[in-house]
Request: fold
Amino acid sequence: MLFTATKDRTLTVGDRALLFESLIQDSYKQAYGLAYRLTGNVAEAEDLVQESFVRAYRFFHRYDETLPFTSWLYRIMTNAHIDMVRRRGRIKTTSLEASGTDGATTWDLPDSEASPDRQMLLNALDEPVQKALTSMTVEFRTAVLLADVEGLAYEEVAEIMRTSVGTVRSRIHRGRKQIRNYLLKHAPQTYRSFSDEL
Amino acid sequence: MNCKSVQSRLSAYLDRELGGDELLQMRAHMSACRECRCEAEGLRSLKSLLGGIQCPEPPEDLAHRLTANMIRQRYEEPRQTIRFSALMFAGVTACSMLATLLVLNFGFGRHEQESARGPLGQNSVVSDGPFGDHDFGNGPILSAANFGPR
Reply:
């Protein structure tokens, strides 16, 4: 309903704010998830989400409502993240254990359809996976996250990252191989157990 | 297709991003090559792992803070626009006033010069442009031409 409203170019400032507020409600959890995977810690994830929504609202008049809002937001977020990385020179990462103990992070309830063993292995691999992601270049990490965690098609990833589908294909493939090599090196038993479970 | 080219396309194959001949060649190779099948299985399980990892829940008040940011922006932007417009207006006004003063000053200066010279330089000013630099030497000649007996 609200998306239909955006087609009317005579939206008042109040209507735009109302529409944007509903988009915040619909997308902030997903946006936070991606921001967390991109940055590797809760503090920077929060900064990134806030910066992304601030930019999104500032340029909301340019939003093409024929595209999903999250795709547009992810494009803003990936650019904001690159700016953040350049500004700070490197990405500081906080241990996931540390962020869990101070109560700043709460985790989703496990998927009830997943078997207990699989869920246990997934939980055990979460930290090594995040470390593997953090050790990769921003471009590889972003491509893998958009494709595998967000489940986007290569064309959508290419659109968000403003690059060709061929480049996306290569980044995803090489990125996955880097993660697999990292897991085989740093968590070989757990990773092999997980693979055998499938 | 050899193993190297198949393995470089395995991610795209698993993501159903291949089509046409490429897909058929991949399938044909995979059915005959155990090594490539194993490689594909390894990547498939990794893809499943990445798709299954849990993300932490955002802080409870995050949506509220995002909305508050938006409201702040909504009220700050028009004020910034007004401030910018006011500055622009002040700048343009100042420039206009300066330009007017310069023109008036120049106009009066010229008038004074002309007045000082009296009617002698009048025609030369009109003929030689606004600066009248070349008038001075011609003054007496023109004066003779202008003020001869009519």
The first strand of chain A starts at residue 106 and ends at 107. Strands of chain A lie at 106-107. Residues 91-113 of chain A have pLDDT under 50 and may be disordered. Chain A touches chain B through 55 residues (CB under 8 Å).
